[in-house]
Write a structure and sequence with these properties.
This protein starts with a strand and ends with a helix. The mean pLDDT is about 95. By secondary structure, the protein is an alpha/beta fold. Helix content is about 40%, strand content about 25%. The strands form 3 sheets. It has a 7-stranded mixed β-sheet, sandwiched between helices. A 4-stranded mixed β-sheet has the order 5-13-7-8. The protein contains 7 helices and 13 strands. A hairpin with a 2-residue loop joins strand 7 (about 115) and strand 8. The chain has 2 domains: about 5-170, Spore Coat Polysaccharide Biosynthesis Protein SpsA, Chain A; about 175-250, no CATH class.
Length: about 250
């Protein structure tokens, strides 16, 4: 029978880590790779749930996940964030997927996510099913370290899709969302700079317009009411912020 590790990359997640690990107790091994900047009791809480805890110096998100891959001792790994929960139905589907031995079996699987933001399930605007490539054969997977954020898995083989979702308690409040987007906008600006991109005047108008239209109209974010409007507007604004940071890097 194929074995699997449930791996979590975390920083200051004392609040979530215990509940998350409780939903992963079906895995053969539990691994938490802790950012060396963590200042709370995440490690102690994880160890209390039976997880192995390793501390890594943080450089980028994909590098942190590759460090986790290097510590996995089972053929399969499923990555779960501390603010996500795996349902019993998902655990059964994962077990069935990794048990496949036929020649056409995928080397990894996309798992849908059900995002809860500001107390509500966001069904539109690109937030559902929000597929993430999280289940993978360790020997055939590596993260692309050229991307600082929104990690991309380089998979040596095909990828399938699971049906059961991860439950993601994404943002509790506006301040949490804003703080995360500040980080993402900085990392995205740095990536664009490395790619040789420049901030042009039209980027400050057309790019946010396109982002808002895509989220609110094309992906039907309007169907999520005030949450859909707020999310589309904020993501459009942080497109402006990203290009402003890019412009500063070029001066």
């Amino acid at each position: 029978m194929a074995t699997i590790t449930a791996a979590i990359v975390a920083r200051d997640e004392e609040r979530h880590i215990g509940a998350c690990l409780d939903t992963l107790a079906w895995a053969d091994d539990l691994l938490v790779v802790l950012d060396d900047r963590s200042a709370d009791r995440t490690a102690e809480a994880a160890e209390a749930k039976g997880a192995r805890v390793a501390t890594e110096t943080f450089t980028t998100f994909p590098a942190q996940r590759n460090a986790a891959l290097d510590l996995v001792t089972t053929p399969w790994v499923v990555f779960v964030d501390a603010d996500e929960r795996a349902t019993p139905a998902l655990s059964r589907e994962v077990r069935a997927a990794i048990a496949r031995t036929d020649s056409s079996a995928p080397a990894g699987y996309w798992i849908p996510r059900r995002n809860y933001i500001w107390g509500g399930w966001i069904r539109h605007g690109g937030w559902f099913p929000d597929y993430q490539l999280r289940l993978m054969n360790v020997a055939h997977a590596r993260y692309d370290e050229r991307r600082d954020v929104h990690e991309l898995v380089e998979l040596n083989g095909t990828a399938g899709h699971l049906i059961e979702p991860l439950i993601h308690y994404n943002y509790d409040c506006l301040g949490q969302f804003v703080a995360k987007q500040r980080v993402y906008s900085t990392l995205d600006a740095e990536r664009l700079a490395r790619e040789g991109k420049r901030a042009r005047p039209h980027n400050f108008v057309l790019q946010p317009y396109r982002e808002f239209r895509r989220r609110f109209v094309e992906l039907q974010g309007h169907r999520d009411g005030w949450r859909g409007m707020a999310l589309a507007s904020l993501l459009a604004w942080y497109t402006v912020v990203t290009y402003a940071k890019l412009a500063r890097q070029k001066t």
